[in-house]
Design a protein that fits this description.
- It comes from Shewanella electrodiphila.
- Keywords: Cytochrome c-type biogenesis, Heme, Iron, Membrane, Metal-binding, Signal, Transmembrane, Transmembrane helix.
- Possible subunit of a heme lyase.
- By secondary structure, the chain is mainly α.
- It has three domains: about 35 residues; about 60 residues, Helicase, Ruva Protein, domain 3; about 30 residues.
- About 65% of the residues lie in helices and about 0% in strands.
- The protein has seven helices and no strands.
- The radius of gyration is 32 Å and the shape is flat.
- The N and C termini lie far apart (about 120 Å).
Length: about 160
């Protein structure tokens, strides 16, 4: 045996090779199973419903504050066609949204995902809400407590 072969034999014992082989086989099976689940044939009603749902979640790149579903611009119609084409290919809703985000950027989403770049978009409104609630409670507590004075005549009391 050459020294190189002995070194390889010590590093990779038959048991470690068997374990690595089993792990690789299971990982390949998991990938093909997830691909099989994500690529499926949708019925016509499922395609229509899912296509409209995706189009409502995405913003039209050409018009302000309009979803692809609501917009009638040329690019919106083309993107709606792409959505239904990808559904015909069996792609999932998330795959289609990921494709659109990769092509047009995060701005195409109406609900931006939560990551370091959009953290302020999510935290500022929540912070303002709690700040307003706490400020309102503090303002109510600091109001002077003045007793209500009733001016009643003795005749009115009876």
């Amino acid at each position: 045996m050459t020294p190189f072969y002995r070194m390889l034999h010590r590093m990779f014992s038959p048991i470690s090779v068997a374990i690595i082989t089993v792990l690789l086989i299971f990982s390949v099976q998991n990938v093909t199973a997830s691909e099989a689940l994500s690529h499926r044939n949708y019925s016509a009603d499922e395609k229509r419903q899912l296509g409209f749902e995706i189009a409502q979640e995405l913003r039209c790149p050409a018009s302000d504050n309009r979803s692809l579903f609501d917009s009638e611009t040329q690019i919106a119609n083309e993107l709606k066609g792409h959505i239904f084409q990808k559904l015909d290919q069996g792609q999932s809703k998330q795959e289609i949204i990921d494709f659109m985000v990769a092509r047009f950027g995060e701005r195409i989403r109406y609900q931006p995902s939560l990551h370091s770049g959009t953290l302020a978009l999510w935290l500022i409104p929540i912070g303002l809400f709690f700040f307003t609630i706490i400020g309102g409670i503090a303002w109510i507590i600091k109001q002077p407590q003045t007793p209500i004075k009733l001016h009643l005549n003795e005749n009115e009391y009876e």
